[in-house]
Amino acid sequence: MVVFTHSIIQRWVQDPYKLGVLHNHDNEYLHYQEDWYILSSKIENKPDDYVFVYYRGKNDAWEGYGGSVVYTRSPVLPASIVPELEKAAEKVGMDFKKFKRTDNSCGPAPPLLVRLGNKMEELEQSIGKELELLGKEAEMFGRTETAFISEIRRGTKGN
């Protein structure tokens, strides 16, 4: 028996000349590069601690993707840090008010029967689409077969 194990280590290297810039390049098995720019941060071991990051990157499919993230200790963005985030975003030409907020509340998983029911609905829809496609292919085959038989009959009548 052959067993393959995979271990990935991502390395973030602080730029020696720009201390607020982290580079993530040349990771083994991972085909991407990212540069992270720390726009603002407050780390005082308090509930409203945060790190505001803007990132740019490239991978096999897309060169120049980017975005921002605010890391906090809270599942909800603390209102107390919003003015700081707005100022930091403005300094680099972004409008923090246009940013989208995510729901990080991570509620409980739905009960097993609900999840199974959802999977059954997905499966039924998938099967329905496949049957519809098969029906169209059968109709096309029938028309092709009819045309082929007509051609054969015409050919045999001429002999």
TrEMBL record:
Q: Which GO terms describe its molecular function?
A: violaxanthin de-epoxidase activity
Q: Which GO terms describe its cellular component?
A: chloroplast
A Gene Ontology biological process annotation? xanthophyll cycle
Domain of life, source organism: Eukaryota
**Start and end residues of each VDE lipocalin domain:** 4-104
Q: Which InterPro entries match?
A: Calycin, VDE, VDE_dom
One Pfam match:
VDE
Provide the protein name.
VDE lipocalin domain-containing protein
| Source species | Araucaria cunninghamii (Hoop pine)
